[in-house]
Amino acid sequence: MNLPAIILVTGTDTGVGKTITTAALAAVLHGTGRSVAVYKPCQSGAAAGDSDTAEIVRLAGPVTAETGVVLQEPLAPVAAAAVDGTPLPQVSAHAVRVRELAASHDHVLVEGAGGLLVELDSGGGTLADLGSLLAAAFVVVARPALGTLNHTALTLEALAARDLNVLGVVLGSWPGDPGFVHHSNRQVLGTLQVPFLGALPEQASELSQADFRAEAAAWLNGLPA
After folding, report:
1. Which residue of 80, 100, 101, 120 shows the fewest CB atoms closer than 10 Å?
2. What is the pLDDT of residue 152?
3. Cα–Cα distances in angstroms (integers) from residue 59 to residues 20, 30, 35, 213, in the given order
């Protein structure tokens, strides 16, 4: 499987399925015998017991998983850090840690917070800036519902404006009973200039680890062979 060493997973919005997509990518890579690390620069909402990296390990299996900074409120990183009184690491510091993980793993998956241009530090650094520092490839996770075509186009345009490589687009939560709009959006997303990598079922997180790992490759059947 010819994939970049560092892959950044971003979303067209919050709640689109980035964590489950990251877990599926990790499961597929781990299933081919690759060593995988997952890095989350910023985790918000810790007060509610949320942990994206723990969820990824639960679903994908024995992968290395780290979080750069953990914040209590379920807000964007800068706002959550202000409430907590916690200093945020600079994007360049995250880049250093990702490179360290890349030195000891075949692949590092970096899951962003919210969308591509959400600020991760007090200097306005974003996941797009992190991608520039790392010369990494992006996976864009989108929702299948109404509005996704515009949101996806805007995200891809922002990536293209920064000359950032896009591995492809994933639908992060495909409904069990999709309607006409879902099928229409999926068809249109399949005609974009970047590859359509696949779609994850909306109930994927409810599967056992064994079933999740067994089915992940079928969901992401657009990944390069």
Report:
1. 100
2. 98
3. 8, 12, 16, 7
